[in-house]
């Protein structure tokens, strides 16, 4: 009893408290977006969103809903900070990454508000570790302004068939060209590398495709180096949704099922490669 | 050209590509009437591999001979009716990158030539309706052909690939060369220690096998041959994956060793590796030359320019150009473990004593000659120059002075009046050999031939010297073999 009131007193100073029985539920999701060192964390009543960006062209977000936490308390409307995600991941995996059943790491994460560090308590098998990670001033994150109303083409498919296609992409190609169309070849991923061009076609009637809603034929090119990190999210996920809007912006949403059967989402937004000789604005 | 490979054979095809990729950097593709030939040769031209896939390997096989497309026909008429190309191994590997995935998902593989775009198109039709298309760039090239006569080798061993894999697994992965020592009683595999100042400081590995372990063990000539282990590993990886027997044909030091795989008549593979021309440490020899540079670059020219006579592997030739061999080979084709060993062989300690002349052979057809020619990049040390070799048909006339041939006058081609004069320096040399693949110095021998036709195509890596060029006289007087 005294322990719980003591806890209560300490916890009173924190703006955000989140408890997870299995830290891996969080670390796996964060690994899916770990292609840069720094990440911006947003905490709202709905949960935690972690954002990583690169070159102002690609943005990855991972969503940890409040529902997946055993306890989620937010004393303010929202809390935002920037943090070194590499360090955060290393702390979350401090007990090693063994996948023995039953050997889960419990996590308690606390944040005291603007300027205070992020504190992690991790416990496994009776051993307790506490980590304090400095937080930084949050940067403005890009708003890709990707709204569902502007979506022209949308395909939802199972991730397995795309996994090896993405991991075997010809890295000598600068771009990945995505063609989505209501006619053949429906969905085509193309690369243009040193050896020649490669095309992977996915028909709409394939049993791998769950939903196919394409209204217009669109071909867009995206920098392959920017999209390559999305393979991590793809390998973890069960399903992927590919959407393009009228500007050619790409939205990839991955549905990831964690160890406890809960569903989390990771999304990638990417801006298209513009042709240099285009005179008119898009 | 167009062929379609069924699902279960795509795995074998992919494995063949992986095996070839470990040997050479370019894949030579040639659709022939009797099947699709995939060949490669390593950069130092000391290893050659050829996979021949019979038409039964494919669902559909069209070597492009009868085409309705006029454009294609014109093209083919230019090329003497056959399409030959080479693609880089890297680009081919990008198609067959992940073998487990291919095994699981690919239902069919189509290979087609797209003339209009100049691309070789590989299409993988996978499960769930997924199609993967690879449009690969290629280079037109001449046929890559090795000249070797495995049926004439006195030594033949047939073994399960598993046995050889296990044997080879005993050697360190960093081991470059291995020596195979055979006698009727046993076979021994040893690691080859190269130019080590203190051989006792280096680990020596040796393993022996009894003839009973092999499916066929025919030894006509006790010998030891040293060849590259890396290539053998690649061969055995393929053989093991496809549960093949491996047939090994070899003769002696300096002669190539041939590994042959026979895939239930739907495909066959031949691998020809050069063997070290210098006997290993167990043999006492006075023929060792201090090699100034590393041996591995096979195409280094020998100190003397020689022409060697080789035969194309056709029945008509085999009997002719190796006259001296035939009678010695009688009784060699038995499968017993006790090989016959005519005493004639015991004298043949050195491979250099045979002199085979093309002119002696039945002149009904111009014999083939393999010549080794420097490509002009002569350094001060003559043995640093690399050489190219090619095969052409011609007659050889010999001018001798005393007992030794002094100059060869080679007439190229029938009716062609161009000749090549090849001067042999009359040094203290007591042997001249015209036996294929026997260099005098401690070097691996190149046995390749870049072109079986006149070289009009310079798409080859090495520049070919025109046949009318007179070969430079050797300047290295130190060599005393």
Number of discrete domains of chain B: 2
Choose one word for the global shape of chain B.
Answer: globular
Assign the structural class of chain B, choosing from mainly alpha, mainly beta, alpha/beta, alpha+beta, or little secondary structure. alpha+beta
* Integer count of domains of chain A: 2
CATH architecture of the largest domain in chain B: Roll
Strand order of the largest sheet of chain B: 10-6-2-3-4-20-19-18-12-16
List the quaternary state of the chains: heterodimer
Helix content range of chain B: 10-25%
Mean pLDDT of chain A: 88
Tell me the span between the first and last alpha carbons of chain A. 64 Å
Q: What would CATH call the architecture of the largest domain in chain A?
A: Box
Spatial extent as radius of gyration of chain B: 23 Å
CATH topology of the largest domain in chain A: Proliferating Cell Nuclear Antigen
How many strand units of chain A? 18
* Rg of chain A, nearest Å: 21 Å
N- to C-terminal separation of chain B?
50 Å
Question: TL;DR of this structure?
Answer:
The complex is a heterodimer of chains A (about 280) and B (about 475). Chain A is of the alpha+beta class and about 280 residues long.
Describe the structure in your own words.
The complex is a heterodimer of chains A (282) and B (481). Chain A has helices at residues 2-11, 24-31, 85-92, 160-167, 224-227, 230-236; strands at 16-20, 38-44, 47-54, 58-65, 71-74, 79-84, 106-111, 118-124, 127-133, 151-158, 175-180, 187-193, 196-202, 209-214, 218-223, 239-245, 250-257, 263-270. Chain A is α+β, with helices and mostly antiparallel strands and 282 residues long. In chain A, the strands form three sheets. In chain A, strands 6-2-3-4-18-17-16-10-14 form a nine-stranded antiparallel beta sheet. A five-stranded antiparallel beta sheet of chain A has the order 5-1-7-8-9, covered by helices on one side. Residues 1-6 of chain A have low confidence and may be disordered. Chain B is of the alpha+beta class. Chain B folds into two domains: 2-140, Proliferating Cell Nuclear Antigen, CATH 3.70.10.10; 150-401, DNA Polymerase III, subunit A, domain 2 (DNA Polymerase III, Chain A, domain 2, Roll), CATH 3.10.150. In chain B, a hairpin with a 4-residue loop joins strand 13 (177-182) and strand 14. In chain B, helix 1 packs antiparallel against helix 3, helix 1 runs antiparallel to helix 6 and helix 5 (161-169) crosses helix 6. The model of chain B is unreliable at 75-79, 281-399, 404-418, 422-434, 441-445 and 449-467 (pLDDT under 50). Classes of the chains: A alpha+beta (282), B alpha+beta (481). The interface between A and B is medium-sized, with 21 and 20 residues.
């Amino acid at each position: 009893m005294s322990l719980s009131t003591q806890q209560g007193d300490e916890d009173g100073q924190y703006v955000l408290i989140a408890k997870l029985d299995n830290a891996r539920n969080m670390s796996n999701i964060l690994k899916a977006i770990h292609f840069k060192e720094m990440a911006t964390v947003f905490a709202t009543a709905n949960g935690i969103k972690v954002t990583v960006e690169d070159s102002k062209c690609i943005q990855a977000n991972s969503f940890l809903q409040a529902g997946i936490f055993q306890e989620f308390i937010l004393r303010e409307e929202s809390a935002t900070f920037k943090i070194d995600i590499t360090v955060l991941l290393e702390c979350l995996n401090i007990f090693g990454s063994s996948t023995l059943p039953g050997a889960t790491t419990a996590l308690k994460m606390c944040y005291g508000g603007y300027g205070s560090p992020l504190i992690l308590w991790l416990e496994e098998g009776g051993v307790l570790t506490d980590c304090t990670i400095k937080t930084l001033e949050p940067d403005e994150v890009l708003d890709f302004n990707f709204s569902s109303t502007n979506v022209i083409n949308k395909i939802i498919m199972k991730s397995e068939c795309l996994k090896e296609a993405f991991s075997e992409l010809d890295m000598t190609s600068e771009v990945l060209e995505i063609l989505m169309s209501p006619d053949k070849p429906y969905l085509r991923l193309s690369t243009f590398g040193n050896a020649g061009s490669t095309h992977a076609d996915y028909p709409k009637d394939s049993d791998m495709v769950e939903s196919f809603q394409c209204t217009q034929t669109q071909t867009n090119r995206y920098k392959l180096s920017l999209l390559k990190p999305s393979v991590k999210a793809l390998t973890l996920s069960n399903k992927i949704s590919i959407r393009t809007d009228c500007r050619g912006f790409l939205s990839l949403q991955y549905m990831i099922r964690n160890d406890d059967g809960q569903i989390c989402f990771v999304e990638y937004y990417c801006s298209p490669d513009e042709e240099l000789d285009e005179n008119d604005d898009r | 050209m167009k062929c379609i490979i069924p699902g279960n054979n795509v795995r074998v095809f992919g494995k063949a590509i992986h095996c070839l990729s470990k040997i050479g950097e370019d894949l030579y593709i040639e659709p022939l009437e009797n099947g699709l030939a995939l060949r490669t040769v390593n950069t130092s031209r000391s290893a050659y591999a050829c996979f021949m896939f019979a038409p039964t390997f494919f669902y559909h096989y069209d070597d492009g001979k009868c085409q309705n497309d006029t454009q294609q026909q014109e093209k083919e008429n230019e090329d003497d009716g056959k399409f030959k190309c080479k693609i880089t191994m890297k680009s081919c590997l990008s198609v067959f990158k992940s073998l487990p995935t291919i095994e699981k998902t690919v239902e069919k593989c189509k290979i087609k030539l797209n003339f209009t775009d100049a691309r070789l198109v590989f299409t993988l039709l996978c499960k769930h309706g997924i199609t993967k298309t690879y449009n690969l760039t290629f280079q037109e090239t001449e046929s890559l052909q090795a000249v070797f006569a495995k049926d004439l080798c006195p030594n033949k061993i047939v073994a399960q690939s598993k046995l050889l894999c296990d044997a080879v697994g005993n050697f360190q992965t960093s081991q470059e060369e291995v020596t195979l020592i055979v006698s009727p009683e046993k076979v021994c595999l040893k690691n080859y220690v190269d130019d080590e100042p203190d051989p006792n400081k280096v680990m020596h590995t040796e393993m022996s096998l009894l003839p009973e372990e092999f499916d066929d063990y025919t030894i006509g000539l006790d010998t030891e041959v040293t060849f590259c282990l890396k290539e053998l590993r690649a061969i055995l990886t393929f053989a093991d994956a496809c549960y093949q027997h491996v047939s090994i044909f070899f003769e002696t030091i300096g002669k190539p060793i041939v590994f042959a795989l026979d895939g239930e008549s739907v495909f066959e593979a031949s691998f020809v590796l050069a063997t070290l021309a210098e006997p290993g440490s167990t043999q006492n020899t006075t023929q060792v030359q201090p090699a100034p540079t590393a041996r591995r670059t096979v195409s280094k020219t020998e100190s003397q320019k020689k022409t060697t006579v080789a035969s194309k592997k056709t029945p008509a030739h085999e009997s002719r150009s190796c006259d001296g061999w035939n009678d010695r080979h009688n009784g060699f084709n038995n499968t017993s473990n006790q090989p016959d060993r005519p005493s004639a062989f015991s004298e043949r300690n050195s491979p250099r004593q045979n002199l085979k002349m093309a002119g002696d052979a039945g002149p009904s057809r111009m014999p083939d000659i393999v010549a080794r020619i420097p490509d002009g990049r002569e350094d001060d040390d003559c043995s640093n120059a690399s050489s190219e070799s090619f095969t052409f048909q011609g007659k050889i006339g010999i001018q001798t002075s005393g007992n030794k041939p002094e100059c060869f006058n080679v007439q190229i081609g029938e009716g062609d009046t161009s000749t090549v004069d090849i001067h042999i320096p009359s040094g203290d040399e007591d042997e001249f050999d015209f036996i294929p693949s026997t260099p005098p110095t401690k070097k691996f021998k190149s046995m390749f031939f870049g072109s079986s036709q006149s070289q009009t195509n310079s798409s080859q890596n090495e520049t070919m010297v025109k046949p009318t060029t007179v070969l430079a006289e050797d300047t290295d007087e130190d060599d005393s073999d």
